[in-house]
User: Fold these one by one.
Assistant:
Number 1:
Amino acid sequence: MLAKRIIPCLDVRDGLVVKGVQFRNHEIIGDIVPLAKRYAAEGADELVFYDITASSDERVVDKSWVARVAEVINIPFAVAGGIKSVDQAREILSMGADKISINTPALRDPDLINRMVDEFGQQCIVIGIDSFYNETSGHYEVHQFTGDEKRSGKTAWHTSDWVQEVISRGAGEIVLNCMNQDGVRQGYDVAQLKAIREQCSVPLIASGGAGALEHFVDVFHQANVDGALAASVFHKGIIDMDELKASLADNGIIIRR
Amino acid sequence: MKLVIVNTGVANLASVNFAFKRLGVEAVVSADPDIIRSASHVVLPGVGTASAAMRSLTELQLIDVLRELTQPVLGICLGMQMLTNSSSEQYSQQSSNHMGDAPLPCLGVIDTQVERLQNKDNLPLPHMGWNATEVTDHPLFKGFASEQPYFYYVHTYAAPAERHCIARCEYTQPFAAAIAQGNFMGVQFHPERSGDAGARVLQNFLEITC
């Protein structure tokens, strides 16, 4: 049976892993290579590196760390943040990344998804979606530029429509970041993920809200997502990978041990 | 030992190259027929679509070179699929120039063929992630004993778990996780991204002599 995936996400700025609160006051956690190695050794099924340098700056960003990561780890990894063109994607994939994840640039130019899929194949094109539940309208709305507080805001897309749009353009996987839950560690947005799961024909990864072991159990049991992404619970040592995987296995969830 | 990774021009070679480096082996990345022929071991990687990869091998005039190799050859993912007789992945998903129903001819050194995985139970495709794999006693899987190792897969097309199948996996249907015929071997999963289990498969490959 296909195992459910546990995916730690590392924020990268200028080649270092950082941690911030609401994208501010970044604190350096450490060098990217030893941290990536540690997560791989601990049993992470995949890693995501979110380059926050790239998402809010226009300047050319040094991506040489991608090759240094590819050299040492033997599990798949994706690079997210600031990839706006087929050429930028090619550079990152040629350095050894397995997937690239695009978010705002896909909203600005949806055809970018088609061009990337045609060039590199469906399997390495991941679409990140930042979805916010608007209590006033009662809709889940897609937001863009969420890495940059000056430009961030909602788009005209309802989340379920954008999911269908990116799938029809060939996206190979979707990471759904539920903004209302993000950073508060009160659990994944199971209701939203379950609704999207039912209409999503490609792998779906839950993001935003993990704070305890049972949140992972819940999101796999109730929303049947393919993977669960989390950042702070791993960085802060709140959740131990081994314990998490043991707990998932005890709850009847197929997991790689 | 002279390991050559075939530079198909379309595949992502870095991760395969790094995986052998971690085993202490420096590979030569090349599309030169003489260098490929002189290798002790040849790896055919592959990412992308079968039609793009076959077109690239044709342009590089490598079709016959690869077919005539007698040393151990390992195809990875799409590289494995190219070793078979044919692939039904004949046109790009996005383009509309449907060429009819004839499958795309491949290298034909392993007598099987590649078809799209069936849709079943609303399971998402591509088949992406770590899956338990039933291995045989083929030298490629030396040392796995009775365990079912997890390997990392990313694919939508596969060979059936029938002729020349040396490892078996299941997702929407049973399919070949690995195939072999004579000196030609192929794995559907990505050993370069499959942790310690994948590294062991690559090490086993390097220890095979034909």
Number 2:
Amino acid sequence: MIRKTRLIRLLVLLIVLIGLSSYLSLFLGVTTIRPLEAIREWSSGDLSKETLVLTTLRLPRLVLGLILGANLAVAGALMQAVTRNPLASPQVFGVNAGASLFVILALLLFPALGTANLVYFAFFGAMIGGLLVFSFASVRGMTSLKLALVGMAIHLLLTSLTKGLILFNDRITNVLYWLSGSISDSGWLEVRLIVPWSIIGLILAFSLAKSLAIFQLGQDVAVGLGQNITRIRMLAAVAVVLLAGVTVAVAGAIGFIGLMVPHIVRRLVGEDYRYVLPVSALCGGLLLTSADVLARFIAYPYESPVGIVTALLGAPFFLYLAKRQTKGVA
Amino acid sequence: MLRKRMTGAFALLVMSCLMLAACAGQAKEETTKKTHAVTHEAGTTNVPDHPKRIVALEFSFVDALDELGIEPVGIAQENKDDVSGLLDKKISFTEVGTRQQPNLEVISSLKPDLIIGDFNRHKGIYKQLQQIEPTIILKSRNATYQENLASFKSIAEAVGQTDQMEQRLKLHDKRLAVAKQKVDPDDQRKIMVGVFRSDSLTAHGETSFDGELLEKLGIDNAITKTVEPTVTITLEQIVKWDPDVIFMAEADPKLLNEWKKNPLWNQITAVKKGEVYEVNRDLWTRYRGLDAAEQIVDEAIQLLYPKKS
């Protein structure tokens, strides 16, 4: 159990880091923005180009990064808690791939559909992807290995379907940039779209935090203690679908945040999900925002999809995790 | 009874196989009469002199062959009317899948004596293509104007039509020189060629096919020092680099309408001055031949200098 003073110290540190990365996200990029000048202009109402870039592009981009990062991290933490499996995450569970597939399908069948409606397809796809993996992996007891294998298989299957659709439809080769995960072209429209769903998802997740602790004791104990396991699982699944689905709908499949962040956070605060979930939300936001700043400088002055940056950071971490796991088993 | 019939059928099968093999062998012999070496992006290939059955996997190669008076037997295309749009006439050929995903079986069934693939799309399947028949890999997609010209020259060398190639290039230079006279040398306007897709904007920078071509005529590109000939850019970057003229090679409304609602959109000089033009997408982003280059130049000049032309 984490001590209160340590928790407070951690929170302060996180908030400082988020502040720093927000500052960089707002003021760094191809346009140089001077904070003081921007504030002065903003209060006088006479906005220059630079200040407009700040208020109409950088600010929504920052908000989006913080919220979507939180969504992905919390979705990952929920999945890892409910499945008691360290490898669970929206990506490994086929949730991201399912959502991507259905968004592409929707674009293909109903080209005139706006982003606001794509969200529902993303939710549905996220659900299908997750259900597929869960049902195959839980036949005769779920193990980490089985989950990883089934998850990867379903992920690859769904991704290959998506790629097939793109290959045979010249018109939607369009979406390749979105597919690799990006928040660079987002504005307030996207923010308005994701905020309600994200709030519902996050509140649902946080309200489950206390019950999640029971999963750590094992399913039998949980049932013995009178917990309604199925109900908690269902609610957690709904939260994951909302959080991951809405993220994919606006930003594409940004991988690795859902996998990495909960691990780091459990290292820091222990296994109590009343702390793990909110701290994961903060760390997820911090990570995505920082990755988004990095994405602007990899090929400066041109931008790279942020999904590539998170994968760049995440892949070595995944390997490290896998190595530690096999050591533990042996 | 049954066994006898089976044996008979089997014998027939073996015989027909042998005959087929013999035929194939003959076909091989015919094509291996005389060859010359052609150096290309993926190595050096011995190409038969004056190949007759050519498969072209990019539109600009089809255009090049057409300029040299050769009709390919197989072409990769996405839409039924791609080739007729490209050449402005109907030719008969076999579709060999899409440019992104050519069908090797169909290519093989055509028994070509030369396959021309694109460096960007087909370098990965070069070995497989080479196993079918002699293959050369040249630059077209995401390549510069000069690289596309070089590909035209390589094709002419491969098919042994260098005289015709030189004549055509002379004509091309002449046409560009005529076009250049219509460009005002004091014109400071910088252009951007943008492909506005549903989720992103791709700009053709100063080293892209159309970008470099227009630069050659003295029409400057606003998107400079790019890592690749084409780059994905954001609204913030357009505002920063502020083009005076925007050519929209594609105008998907999804992202574009969102940008148009942003007050920054109206801060772009091209938008302020009303110099945002939609241009022919196939011509500006897909064809990339000599003919396409000349048409792009014409379209650009008509839009930039409506009174003069």
Number 3:
Amino acid sequence: MSFLERFNQINWDELKMSIHSKTAADVQHALNSSRLTHDQFLALISPAAEPYLEAMAQKSMALTRQRFGNTLQLFIPLYLSNKCTNICTYCGFSLGNKIRRKTLKMEELDQEVAAIKKMGFDHILLVTGEAPGTVGVEYIKSVLERIRPHFSHISIEVQPLDQADYETLMTAGLDAVLVYQETYNRSAYKEYHLRGSKMDFDYRLETSDRLGKAGIDKIGVGALIGLEDWRTDSAMAAAHLDYLEKTYWRTRYSISFPRLRPCEGEFQPVSVISDRQLVQLICAYRLFKPEAELSLSTRESAKFRDNVLPLGITTMSAYSSTHPGGYADDNILGNEDLEQFSIDDNRRPEVVAKAIQERGLEPVWKDWSPCFNH
Amino acid sequence: MLKIADKTFASRLFTGTGKFSNSLVMTEAILASGSELVTMALKRVDLNEQQDNILGPLIENNLNLLPNTSGARNADEAIYAAQLAREALGTHFVKIEIHPDPKYLLPDPIETLKACETLSKMGFAVLPYIHADPVLCKRLEEVGVAAVMPLGSPIGSNLGLRTKEFIQIIIEQSSVPVVVDAGIGSPSDAALAMEIGADAVLVNSAIAVARDPVEMAIAFKEAVIAGRRAYTAGLGARSLQAKASSPLTAFLDD
């Protein structure tokens, strides 16, 4: 039994129709409940909930403070490689794009780690394209072993792997894995992913089951907003999360809401989510899952991030560079010929930390210990 | 005076360091509470750094540290974390928190018992966070824990003493101090726990997330004192019925 079987029973169009048929009464009912069902989540992301945004935000903020306190966790992504053998029409790393390809050597990795540690980060997210020949399990493993002494918490966002590979990487110090389905619409997925192993929708969908079976501490799920109707994709992601939580109950979960932004290539989003709707989505997730980590990246503007961070967000990246080797040059804005997507909030970490404090929250740099991973 | 292992405490209010908006507010609130034993999550502090913004102020103010193993999912991880803490912080006090369930953070009784047995043998003063389970408390006592810490309701829920009857059984049976931990949402909850005979309470979220944490810390301090006084003074029995007449036995007086 995996999520795939359950997923195959969900009809995309019926789900979409169900969201759009929600009424004000459904929304009020959801707002008055303390433990929400998936159907109540649908009400909160529906157009009928738009007039209730302020009430949702109030409740979302209160739940977040109660659970996570007056804190906000910071992390930084480290791009190890932009080599990729996939063609994904929306991604800057896509095989056909004429960008300079680079994979960090161990000495370059040390320089990146030194630059990151200097900024104060203790939680790190390792990112690669999908090029198993160059950046396969062996490469990731040697990176983990090399950087483990320098960080309290290490996550990866790389190609989906087998359960045994995850177990190997966990032994080498891996704490968490982020794997986004991009879109849960099977036929749209096919149109976006034209070449490479990523074409295998089912293998990707079952990744979090493999992670759960491996006993990983944390799994990040989500959809890439813009590829398909954002409401239906989010409803699918929420169903996925609901399943995972019940099945792998020892694991923690994080959700993010990446919105497509301009990148190398000519791709434009099919479904556009407004700022207002993104806030609605964030609050709906918080009301649905008070314990989930909600993460917001530097794809979003400084203004949007500062205003949204008290409402339900628990985790944020800062000063991200999306090209390999970006921190050691201290040149996150340069080298546009190497990057995956351009970032909007490019403030330095101490500036982001100050903005968090100004909202009455404590920026947290360390909230894990490698002694819980052995 | 309350005695736990080799330490005595004038204050029966224990506090924590999580969820505060900054370390200044945290320090002020803890000092205002009068608390002499403060718990902090090992995962949040940098053990190699005395300037750590949680550890620094605690050490500076000579507060007794109660490192906790929050994040551990089994006995082995908790034991390892406790050893790290003892080595780095120089205290043999440890609060065992093993919650494999990251949602409600409910404690695993089996792993907790295992960890407590090992750590007690190693000379730790072990304070386990547990469900309000009277039998488990006796088992823990047998393996040598320094106190037991049954929950009032899930951590951070502010729901109060939902386990009151079970805590009363624990208090009645226990030969080690009983510290009610988790779920205490308001000073009246803390007072109630003390009135029914708890030896101490541990309060964190309700202080840290209050609009004014320092004022709330004072409120808890006073509630704990009042509750303890009421307990030692001896509460009168409660009854809704007036005791004036005895309709069933009045004939005996005729």
